[in-house]
UniProtKB/TrEMBL annotation:
Enzyme class at the top of the EC tree: transferase
GO biological process annotation, one example: lysine biosynthetic process via diaminopimelate
Biological pathway: Amino-acid biosynthesis; L-lysine biosynthesis via DAP pathway; LL-2,6-diaminopimelate from (S)-tetrahydrodipicolinate (aminotransferase route): step 1/1
Keyword Transferase: yes
Source organism, top-level taxon: Bacteria
Keyword Plastid attributed: no
GO-annotated molecular function: L,L-diaminopimelate aminotransferase activity; pyridoxal phosphate binding
Signal sequence extent: none
CDD domains for the chain: AAT_like
Species this protein is from: Succiniclasticum ruminis DSM 9236
Cofactors demanded by this protein: pyridoxal 5'-phosphate
InterPro entries linked to this entry: Aminotransferase_I/II_large, DapL/ALD1, PyrdxlP-dep_Trfase, PyrdxlP-dep_Trfase_major, PyrdxlP-dep_Trfase_small
Full protein name: LL-diaminopimelate aminotransferase
Aminotransferase class I/classII large domain ranges (all copies): 35-388
């Protein structure tokens, strides 16, 4: 008889967004006249940049012509996109080899799939609060997970604790949900800790394009020594509105080596290549051409216009909270605003208050980990009008 993976039995139901959706549906059914503003979801709302659409159309047309039709592509992505990324990284001082870059259908898949190349006996260090995928994908493997607490004391940027022994470390900067971003000096401490312990950092840079403070790192590879201890996962979802188009990339340095139980030295780059060529058949040609267009000067200009729109939304929300004396993190260098619930309310209590009194939907911080209790995530991805109206409601009622 087939036995199932028992680790799924200990996974908690993915309760956060379904619970939010239920509560909002119940509220709208009871009060159809109320205009609800949604600052809860982490999905983009602006359309793809025109150069991206043109590149997709051109690539689609090529697929309809015998001479330019493409079948299976390289599992790790086409050279043209690797070259575009090599140039992009050079823009912030990082030298990459084409063979260090792996194109994927997004950072969520890579976050989950990368677990394949690590032994299940590893101890996993996960920030709390954080993007829930790191936790759940490792619970699915039955791994031991240790949490590092984010709090106002550390600015929601947990730092290495020499008394904690970890093998795999997840870092997300700028962070979802807190919007907090590590400085180069802070990342250097993590790189030193990882190198000293033989650990590997899985660095999620999905929000790097939101960074406007030029002193902050856009990539962990801006930190000396990171190529010996880190893998970087990134995505075009938020950078270029690819949440529905699906394209991301993972950088596994050629120098990154670790041993098997028996002491055999293995290249993580070669392992990831083997994993991808075995279990993945690549991202569609059309999507990779669209992604290539993102990295052209015009593509960057157009995508940055969209990012500026979201950032202005974040600024408006942040300014209103500041006026009300509400503590918050993020809002700059990030599309997320992580606010403390007023009047010492718990996260879900504040969710209900916001929905019922202001008809605004956000995301309870406790859904991102127990350290998120008493905190709340607002996003900058709504339209300008809706954001301005939400801000007015905050000003009047909070
Ligand atoms: N990493 C973080 C921190 C995210 O917040 C998200 C999406 O919300 C992802 C990864 C997933 O991105 P993708 O759409 O590329 O799968």
């Amino acid at each position: 008889m087939a036995r199932v993976n028992e680790n799924f039995a200990v996974l908690e139901d993915s309760y956060l967004f379904s619970q939010v959706a239920h509560k909002v549906a119940d509220f709208s059914a009871a009060h159809p006249e109320k205009k609800i503003i949604r600052l809860g979801i982490g999905d983009v709302t602006l359309p793809l940049a025109p150069v991206v659409v043109t590149a997709m159309q051109k690539a689609a047309a090529e697929m309809g012509v015998k001479e330019t039709f493409r079948g299976y592509g390289p599992e790790q992505g086409y050279d043209f996109l690797h070259e575009a990324l090599v140039k992009y990284y050079a823009g912030f001082g990082v030298t990459l080899e084409s063979s260090e870059i792996f194109i994927s259908d997004g950072a969520k898949s890579d976050c989950g799939n990368i677990t394949d190349i690590f032994d299940d006996a590893n101890v996993i260090l996960v920030p709390d609060p954080v993007y829930p995928v790191y936790l759940d994908t490792n619970i699915m493997r039955g791994r031991k997970i240790v949490f590092m607490e984010g709090s106002p004391e550390n600015g929601f940027l947990p730092m290495p604790d020499p008394t904690v022994k970890a093998d795999i470390i997840y870092l997300c900067s700028p962070n979802n949900p807190t919007g907090a971003a590590y400085s180069k000096a802070q990342l250097k401490e993590w790189v030193t800790y990882a190198c000293q312990n033989g650990a590997v950092i899985l660095y999620d840079a999905a929000y790097e394009a939101f960074i406007e403070d030029e002193t902050l790192p856009r990539s962990i590879f801006q930190i000396e020594g990171a190529k010996e201890c880190a893998i970087e996962l990134c995505s075009l979802s938020k950078t270029a509105g690819f949440t529905g188009t699906r394209c991301g990339y993972t950088v596994v340095p050629l120098r990154l080596m670790r041993k098997t139980k028996n002491g055999k030295e293995m290249s993580l780059n070669k392992m990831w290549l083997r994993r991808q060529t075995t279990k993945f058949n690549g991202v569609p040609y059309i999507v990779q051409r669209a992604a290539e267009a993102v990295f052209t000067p015009e593509g960057q200009r157009q995508c940055r216009e969209n990012l500026a729109y979201y950032k202005e939304n974040a600024r408006l929300i942040g300014a209103a909270l500041q006026e009300k004396g509400i503590t918050y993190y993020g809002g700059t260098n990030s599309p997320y605003i992580w606010m403390q619930c007023p009047r010492q309310m718990k996260s879900w209590e504040f969710f209900d208050f916001l929905l019922e009194e202001l008809n605004i939907v956000g995301t309870p911080g406790s859904g991102f980990g127990s350290s998120g209790e008493g905190w709340f995530r607002l996003t900058a991805f709504a339209g300008r009008k809706a954001t301005e109206e939400a801000v007015e409601r905050f000003r009047k009622l909070l």
